Amino acid sequence: MTHEKPAGSGEEREREREAPSSDGKAIAPPAFTFRPIHVHRDYATLLKFRRDSFLVSMGSAEGMGNENAYLAWMALNSALYPDGFLMMEHDGKVIGQTEAEIILYQGRRIGYVDLFYLVPEYRGKGYGKVQLDRAEAFFRHHGVNEYHLRVSATNERAIRFYKKHGFYKLKEEVIAGHLMWRLGKVLD
User: Computed over its alpha carbons, how large is the radius of gyration of the chain?
Assistant: First the structure.
């Protein structure tokens, strides 16, 4: 179920489906808020999340590249796609990040996810689906019906998640010395 603030408020709330508790009763899932990334305010969090995403995905922070170049790239893309470059919050605490944009791929416009990130304590609980749904709404709003992302070939947990949600393997790529899978999904 989705709850939205009045138009112009700049934030929307997304709510997960109710999940049963251990005693079989439905429990209300947490409400998440998404807000545009503000590089000057969020730079420390952006760098922390990027570093952790490299550690989780590739086993090392090598290949992260220059932090200032990343922040400059973030500033540009968050200005171009403020509804795609988002911080995810729960109870006022930043717990995730999404980087979604529109690119040209083989001569056609598609969506591309540069990053889905959740802090460790929010992983494995189904909350990644909230990010996925939000990104797909962004892509639909921008008139694209297909999107791609890359995942480390060794990140089995992420690969299982993406396959469960309709992604298919397009090809293998080597980026910064790491074997990556380019995955795609066509939106209904």
Answer: 17
